[in-house]
């Protein structure tokens, strides 16, 4: 049987947050579903899921968007992991990252949560921080704007122009991580742009 991966896009539910910086993880998961012509369905683990494949023949991918607010993402993630029988090393968490410039994607496994409450809650619920992460750069707020307000703001006009490229890069990173492994994905996405 082909291995199964869970790819979770972190964010907040509802139209108010849909296109905010904090929801970039869910936007990436949307791109992955669109590429495969899949829609999301309600799941009892308090999430919306789309079951698909990386490519015909495998690996299987469960794309998921928790219905909970960001800071309590762990419950739905742990519920999905249990339902599908997926270990943490096959759970890819896609999330926004303040400490990475906008238009940059970085990948890692484990480590701290860097103050990201969604990642913190997932690590707590899974009882480990050792899961792969695709970190989508949103950059720091300009001037003295509070980071908490910044992440809940919609993307600015210039960002919106480049957002499809960023989401595509992050979706590519998820596919490469699952298909070729962390190192190959890091070598491609951490290299300076030509």
Automatic annotation (TrEMBL):
One GO MF term: hydrolase activity
Chief location of this protein within or outside the cell: cytoplasm
UniProt site (Discriminates between blocked and unblocked aminoacyl-tRNA): 12
Enzyme class name: hydrolase
Catalytic activity: an N-acyl-L-alpha-aminoacyl-tRNA + H2O = an N-acyl-L-amino acid + a tRNA + H(+)
Alphabetical list of PANTHER family matching this protein: PEPTIDYL-TRNA HYDROLASE
Function: Hydrolyzes ribosome-free peptidyl-tRNAs (with 1 or more amino acids incorporated), which drop off the ribosome during protein synthesis, or as a result of ribosome stalling.
Family note: Belongs to the PTH family.
Protein name, entry field: Peptidyl-tRNA hydrolase
Species this chain originates from: Microbacterium terricola
């Amino acid at each position: 049987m082909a291995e199964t991966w869970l790819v979770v896009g972190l964010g907040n539910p509802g139209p108010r947050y849909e296109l905010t910086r904090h929801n970039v993880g869910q936007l990436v998961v949307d791109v992955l579903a669109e590429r495969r012509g899949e829609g999301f369905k309600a799941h009892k683990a308090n999430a919306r899921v789309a079951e698909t494949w990386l490519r015909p023949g495998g690996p299987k991918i469960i794309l998921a968007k928790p219905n909970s607010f960001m800071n309590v993402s762990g419950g739905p993630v742990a519920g999905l992991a249990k339902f599908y029988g997926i270990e943490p090393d096959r759970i890819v968490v896609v999330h926004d990252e303040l400490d990475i410039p906008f238009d940059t994607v970085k990948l890692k496994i484990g480590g701290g949560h860097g103050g990201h409450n969604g990642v913190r809650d997932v690590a707590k619920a899974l009882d480990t921080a050792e899961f792969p992460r695709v970190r989508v750069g949103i950059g720091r707020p300009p001037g003295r704007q509070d980071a908490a307000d910044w992440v809940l703001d919609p993307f600015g006009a210039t960002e919106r122009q480049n957002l499809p490229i960023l989401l595509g890069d992050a979706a590519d990173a998820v596919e490469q991580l699952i298909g070729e492994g962390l190192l190959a994905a890091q070598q491609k996405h951490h290299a300076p742009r030509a």
